[in-house]
Amino acid sequence: MSYDKAIGRTANRLLSGKTAIVTGASSGIGRATALTLAQAGAAVVIHARRQDRLDKLASEIADQGGKALAVGGDASLPTDIDLLLNRSLAWKEGGGKYDIVVVNAGRGLVGGILSSDESRWQEVYQLNVLGAAHLLRQAGQYMVQRKSGDLVVIGSVAGRNISPFSGFYGSSKFAIAAIAEGFRREVCSHGVRVSVVMPGIVLSEFQNVAGYNEENFGKGIAPFGKLLEPQSIADGISWLLTLPPHVNVNEIMIRPTGQNYP
Ligand SMILES: NC(=O)c1ccc[n+]([C@@H]2O[C@H](COP(=O)([O-])OP(=O)(O)OC[C@H]3O[C@@H](n4cnc5c(N)ncnc54)[C@H](OP(=O)(O)O)[C@@H]3O)[C@@H](O)[C@H]2O)c1
User: Fold this and answer.
1) Which sequence positions are flagged as catalytic?
2) Which of 52, 204, 207 to mutate to test the pocket of ligand 1 (most atoms within 8 A of CB)?
């Protein structure tokens, strides 16, 4: 490890030669993860709907001496996911392959079954479960053929401990965590690692998109103290990706120290 002036932090280059796809990279955890993996030497393919944000991030990574390809698209649509994977394989600077996929794009939804907006239910499952599962399946098939690869799925502590304040959203994260573990059992004998990273409360655009405000969220979490930054999750992801290939951290929960619930 050495201090890197361009990025203003200590960096290792343990992911040199790897190509990583990160979905939901225009904001929050995905953005921090793309930057962190690039700083560790990976070429990164960044995906989200907001192309302007991706282009800016790609320039930032290039300014730091890294390699990035920005691919705009909707992670809830199988056709857009297939396009992302094809564009990644066609990217010469990425070596025409990918080694890591961080399945991160997702959205929250405030409320329980009675109190959440039912008109959003389909969108939540289409993105958090079906889109994520399609990406796992397509990338997993490729990795099984190559006999190596890393699939990192972003779950949630609300996908392990259900909360009445985010019951429907939490159920989508229970579903994708179950899908990921089932998938791990299908692919692990082929040298493919699957990890589920379950964050606690991370300050990002997530709260706004989900519909949280001071009344339904801020007051309840005030006793938790300092909340996580996206970087805390990115560091966890980077750590598990740099372990030796025979070591697979299957799941990891990262909460703010003061978060006692869920
Ligand atoms: N923040 C938390 O407290 C927390 C806790 C536990 C788990 N998580 C999980 O962590 C992941 C990242 O969340 P975050 O906190 O970083 O939230 P965020 O800041 O809102 O970022 C969400 C990312 O997903 C992308 N996205 C959303 N819908 C998409 C779609 N249909 N197609 C493609 N990309 C889409 C967004 O980009 P565009 O809008 O540009 O498409 C954005 O880049 C999510 O899976 C979330 O459920 C978050």
Assistant:
1) 169
2) 204
Residue 261 in domain: no
- Cβ of residue 27 lying under 6 Å from some atom of ligand 1: yes
Contact by Cβ (8 Å): 94, 69: yes
For residue 182, give the nearest of 172, 196, 169 by alpha carbon: 196
Beta strands (DSSP E) in 24-163 are: 43-48, 68-72, 100-103, 149-154
202 CA closest ligand 1 atom index: 3
* pLDDT tens-digit map of 60-81: 999 999 999 999 999 999 999 9
> Does 177 contact ligand 1 (Cβ within 6 A)?
no
CATH assignment at residue 237: 3.40.50.720
Containing domain of residue 8, as a range? 2-254
Q: Tens of pLDDT along 33-46?
A: 999 999 999 999 99
Is the pTM higher than 0.90? The answer reads yes
Helix (H) or strand (E) holding 9: strand 9-11
Can you tell me whether residue 95 is helix, strand or coil? coil
Distance CA 67, CA 160 (A): 35
Question: For residue 46, what pLDDT is reported?
Answer: 99
The preferred substitution site among 202, 207, 232, 254 for testing ligand 1, maximizing ligand atoms within 8 Å of CB, is 202
What is the rounded average pLDDT for all residues in the chain? 96
**What mean pLDDT comes out for the span 19-33?**
98
Nearest atom, ligand 1, residue 54 CA = 40
Tell me which DSSP letter residue 228 carries.
B
